[in-house]
């Protein structure tokens, strides 16, 4: 398999339609993106749809997938709901989704950021809203309020973020080397100014999982469910893959409420076996600017030696994952 390449990091901002939206690229190889990213496992969808069926209005009539990218999650949501609204801030992202999602009559497409959801979707019109691996690029306060306005009483708000701090079960040295390489290179890219502000802010939020998102009690039922997958209870900074360096990047605030329900589960289906080329591809798919400079690091080269020494030249990896499930207040007007 050929090693994936990325555009020069200095051109990162120029590749965007609008640098306010860190994943609104003018064009992106979505086939490669899907090749090097985890598949949302059946266990997640079962959790989400079961929660929706048992905690809220349970209607599978209308859904909205916000920050949809090429429609990755909307494909599955569309198998459960009668009608799906698909939105994204990026025109190219949305065009890919529109060309991909079938049947056409099931989906309605809208270009616009999630923060403006209430400007185009009617109030109290949607049974289920999902945000998959995109929330960290949004203004969480504005997004939560805009989405809440469009949700019916008892509707579900579901979100997921997986970490770039890969886990290597049974391979502590490989796990340490991965963190060493990703932290070193991320800090280098930040110090060199190759990540524009929205990208740095998004990275900081993503490293909290979804703990940077608050669910106000005037909008959502008490007992918001926060699920941490492949994370040990009381583990600190489980999704961090970059050392905090004051003056280089600011940590995101977290808003886990005392009434939120926190669950910790181990789920190997959030995992796969990967060769060295795939590990490069996964890291490059972040679009942060990882390239040959990264692969030349002694830590990275040692990591690849460990991977290549395996019986099939691959190694088992897992993702730490953060999931939130919230129910719109049932007495909402």
TrEMBL record:
A matching Pfam family: Methyltransf_11
- Where would I find the Methyltransferase type domain in this sequence? 65-158
Keywords of the record, alphabetical order, are: Methyltransferase, Transferase
PANTHER family found in the cross-reference section:
METHYLTRANSF_11 DOMAIN-CONTAINING PROTEIN, METHYLTRANSFERASE TYPE 11 DOMAIN-CONTAINING PROTEIN
Hey, which family's this protein in?
Belongs to the methyltransferase superfamily.
Q: What is this protein called?
A: Methyltransferase type 11 domain-containing protein
């Amino acid at each position: 398999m050929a090693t994936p390449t990325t555009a020069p990091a200095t051109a990162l901002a120029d590749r965007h339609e609008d640098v306010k939206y860190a994943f609104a690229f003018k064009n992106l190889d979505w086939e490669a993106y899907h090749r090097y990213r985890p598949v949302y496992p059946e266990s997640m969808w079962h959790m989400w749809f079961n929660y929706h069926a048992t905690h809220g209005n349970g209607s599978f009539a209308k859904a909205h997938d916000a920050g949809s990218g090429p429609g990755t999650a909307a494909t599955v949501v569309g198998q459960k709901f009668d009608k799906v609204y698909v939105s994204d801030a990026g025109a190219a992202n949305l065009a890919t989704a529109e060309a991909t999602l079938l049947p056409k009559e099931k989906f309605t497409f809208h270009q616009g950021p999630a923060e403006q959801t209430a400007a185009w979707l009617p109030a109290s019109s949607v049974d289920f809203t999902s945000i998959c691996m995109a929330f960290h690029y949004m203004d969480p306060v504005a997004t939560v309020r805009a989405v809440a306005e469009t949700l019916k009483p008892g509707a579900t708000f579901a979100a997921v973020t997986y970490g770039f701090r890969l886990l290597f079960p049974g391979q502590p040295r490989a796990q340490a080397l991965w963190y060493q390489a990703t932290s070193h290179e991320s800090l280098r890219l930040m110090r060199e100014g190759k990540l524009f502000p929205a990208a740095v802010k998004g990275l900081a939020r993503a490293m909290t999982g979804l703990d940077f998102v608050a669910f106000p009690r005037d909008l959502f039922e008490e007992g918001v469910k926060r699920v941490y997958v492949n994370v040990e209870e009381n583990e600190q900074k489980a999704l961090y893959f970059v050392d905090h360096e004051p003056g280089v990047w600011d940590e995101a605030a977290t808003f886990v409420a005392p009434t939120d329900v926190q669950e910790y589960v181990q789920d190997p289906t959030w995992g796969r076996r990967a060769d060295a080329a795939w590990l490069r591809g996964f890291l490059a798919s972040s679009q942060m600017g990882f390239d040959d400079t990264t692969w030349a690091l002694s830590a990275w080269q040692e990591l690849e030696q460990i991977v290549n020494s395996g019986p099939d030249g691959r190694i088992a990896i897992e993702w730490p994952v953060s999931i939130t499930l919230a129910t719109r207040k049932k007495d909402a007007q």
